[in-house]
Amino acid sequence: MKTNIYLSFGSALLSTYMIAGCQPGQKNEESRSGKLPNIVIIYTDDQGYGDVGVYGATELQTPNIDKLAEGGVKFTTGYASSATCTPSRYALLTGEYPWKNESARILPGSAPLIIDTATMTIPKMLKEQGYHSGIVGKWHLGLGIGEVDWNQHVSPGPNEVGFDYSFIMAATNDRTPTVYLENGFVVGLEKDDPLFVSYQENFEGEPTGIDNPELLKMKWHHGHNNSIHNGIPRIGFQKGGKAAMWVDEDMADDFLEVAQQYIRDQKNNPFFLYFALHQPHVPRTPHPRFVGSSGMGPRGDVIVEADWCVGELVKTLEEEGLLENTLIIFSSDNGPVLNDGYYDDAVEKLGDHKPWGPLRGGKYSLFEAGTRVPFITYWKGEIEPTVSDAMVSQLDLFSSLAQLVGSEERGPDSEELLDVLMGKSDQGREELIIEAGRRTALRKGNWAMIPPYSGPAVNRNVNIESGNSGDFLLYYLNADIGQQENLSQSEPDKLREMIDTYQRITGREL
């Protein structure tokens, strides 16, 4: 990792305290008595239901994630709110359905912030209860209010929606800009080499993946053929800022080290850490330590790498004496995808592994594998190991965490399910709207209903079934978790009930 990351961490942390209007070490009285637990959300990117050992993976080893599940609550029916990244992250932090926000869709790296700074968020709510909050990793919720000047302080961003400390990449690792930002400043940027980013046109003289294949160490399959950095073509164009550019193979270590330092610095305060990993999103670039570790090529290797990161983070909590006072929540932003823009042997080396597990679909899909994801809660000494079939959504974290810390705040669409998350109840939510690319569907009880949608039945770029059909699709998941038997014709009363529920929640006529 670049040494300037370490050098800037302490001073930036101090400055954000001052901006927030509190002094270092200031805590409320309840935290001093040890009643407020630390909260850590570990969020992977494109990791499927079947990409974890305890969820059925036999060809891929994830011992550290498995250990959390085996010592906590493993939810078999846990959902992201969307089958794509930005909407799920919006819902997690705000407790609001993403389809209610027209801007909550996959964003370019130069997009403005889509969370209104007046909106209540998890970090804002926790701040009111005496917490310090930090985000380390992937953001992808927009920055600024329009075209961003990357050579100045970039705001609004994570710090303006409640985070006291932020160390992020703006969007995704396959999009420009390929730099880290710490509290709104590009890390390592040199004044005599300013950074420019565009999603409209290339900068004169800059090579691209489509025009300069000889410069590539990873070939693009679709859509990833603009600016080249580290031998990898990206979405979007950039120029300058060379000293600030990340090394993809070091990204896991970079994020982990900052997250570990955040824990050490905040060990005497109640803290909330949102640790948003980039794996196994494309481009998949495992550190050399993990190359070949899975036998499945880069996609499998970066999942092994992510699992190691989880283990190292938990080890840090344990070393600092915090594990027994920390609630850990592990999940993924959406379901799996194999070829998502690069040739990286994800399909060719898959073997017998099924990233989607017993489910149908994947990323971008309204079928179950798009949004049903690994979902685990762990709190040593507080949560008894159990497997829960209760339906929970990442939407519910807002209201449930508020209940945990004594806040009266609630997310607009977030149900208070603290007892469920703590393994003390199996009464989860009854109804849930899921989303994929602005299309929505309903989960209710043991049933799933997908309204008719035009468009291709298969997303050809990624070879995943979209859930589009000219007819209503209705499935009884208890008997048909793979969604193979459409019951819309044989169960008209149930279909009518599902349609009525869908219309009531969404306000959309079918």
How would you characterize this protein structure?
- This protein has 510 residues and is of the alpha/beta class.
- It is built from ten helices and 22 strands.
- The chain has two domains: 365 residues, Alkaline Phosphatase, subunit A (3-Layer(aba) Sandwich), CATH 3.40.720; 69 residues, 2-Layer Sandwich (Arylsulfatase, C-terminal domain).
- A hairpin with a 2-residue loop joins strand 9 and strand 10.
- Helix 6 runs parallel beside helix 7.
- The longest helix is centred in the middle third of the chain and has 22 residues.
- The protein is globular and about 65 Å long.
- The termini are far apart.
**Which fold name is given in CATH as the topology of the largest domain?**
Alkaline Phosphatase, subunit A
Helix content: 10-25%
For the record, what CATH class of the largest domain applies? Answer: Alpha Beta
SS strand fraction: 15-25%
**How much is the average pLDDT?**
94
Rg for CA atoms: 22 Å
Count of distinct strands: 22
Strand order of the largest sheet: 7-6-5-4-12-1-13-14-2-15
Superfamily at the CATH H level of the largest domain?
Alkaline Phosphatase, subunit A
Specify the structural class: alpha/beta
Number of helices: 10
How many domain modules?
2
Q: Please name the CATH architecture of the largest domain.
A: 3-Layer(aba) Sandwich
Unreliable spans = 1-33
- Describe the global form: globular
Largest sheet: 10 strands, mixed
Distance between the termini: 53 Å
